[in-house]
Amino acid sequence: MRRRWGHPALVVAGAAAAVLGCGVLLGPLRYHESPAATVVTPASPHNDLDNYVRRTVAHLDRVPGDWNAWASLGMAHVQLARIGFDPAHYPQAQAALYRSLAEQPRGNAAALTGLGALAAARHQFGDALRYARRAVAADAYSADAYGVLTDAYVELGRYPEARAAVQHMIDLRPDTGSFGRASYLFELAGDLARAKELMQRALEVAADQGDTAFALQHLGELAWGAGDLKTAEARFADGLARQPGQPALLADRAKVKAARGDLPGALADLRAATATLPTVDHLATLSDVLTASGDHVGAARTDELVRVSDRLTDLTAPAATDIDLILFYADHGDPAKAVAKGRALFAVRPSISVETAYAWALHAAGDDRAALGHADRGLRLHTRDAKAYYYRGVIRLALGDRTGGQADLAEALRINPYFSLRYAPIARAELAR
User: Fold this and answer.
1) Which residues are CB-contacts of 171 (< 8 A; sequence separation ≥ 6)?
2) CATH code of residue 71
3) Is 218 exposed, middle or buried (0-12, 13-18, 19+ CB in 10 A)?
4) Among residues 163, 154, 115, which one has the least CA distance to residue 138?
5) What pLDDT, in 10s, does the model give residues 129-184?
6) Quick check: 349 and 156 in contact, CB under 8 A?
7) Poorest-confidence range of 3-17, 52-66, 191-205, 306-320?
8) Is the pTM of this model over 0.70?
9) Contact 235/216 with Cβ under 8 angstroms?
10) d(CA 114, CA 204)
11) Domain total for the chain?
């Protein structure tokens, strides 16, 4: 299962390494016109956003009281952080959005929406929810505010409210962002046909190459999640034709290549992806492919990069716990750290994805009774997530429930026979016994 509008932890390698929590916005977030305010719309590509920021700063030097411009500048910095995976923009975003509220404290939906988006980007979903509610109260026609509201509800595990919020967003503005969010909610509910239909609509209304590549990537991931390698490969290829070298698409294509047995091709794509976007998820996949290729030294070095970067992050941003880090430590011999991170994240973000990761951490620590409760709740929406079924199957086997455990392993392989280079062979071996 993918976190459709969530960026995983990012490892920055250089003189120092750090794991950074990145944004959660879906696609380019477009400003709207409403009875309350008219906001200038910055273009979505990185260079256009940079130019927009420069023009807006120059404008604000001349007209420092323009609260709309301050709000737009703040959101532009949130967008730059998202598309460039650079949280250095967050303080600039916060300063601009606070200035907008200082200039216009009442009815300033644009600034409140921006602060909600910034809080979500920092994985502070309780704050994101509070800002989004205030934004909706200030401007009931703000599709962007309903987008942030949807994101916050999803990450807080409040799925009925998320469905209501995304319906408001679609009613106000049926675009790639609103259709993509709706697609994800149907995916979480196990309705893959409806999820594909809505993501196809997101593709059809895509406003630029970035939106198009986004929709193609997630159509490919829906196909991958269902074990349809041919469709997944075609979608990722189409996305890369529009955005050559896009790291998430390269990492997705690498999974298809690895599933087909093309380990050298998978390594080439993963090395290119991690050179640009070294997320924990991408690095863990690279480690698995290196292990499958027999390069255990390279795999160990890749794993150590994640560990060192996380230690540095613990000193500077201890709240930036990511699901992929929980799974990494559960899979790489540090169950105590996996449980600690899982417990902390679940306390503030009780989504089904976090439930599933926390269950796996508890299993790694030997607490399978507690793990089973979280594994069950992680599948409470009947999500077609092969890894979630695999995790619960292993937990059930550890508790002596051979029938239930084997049923879950079989279900994981039915959903996607290629779900994990690490664990799919284990599932097949267990079922063959």
Assistant:
1) none
2) 1.25.40.10
3) buried
4) 115
5) 999 999 999 999 999 999 999 999 999 999 999 999 999 999 999 999 999 999 99
6) yes
7) 3-17
8) yes
9) yes
10) 27
11) 2
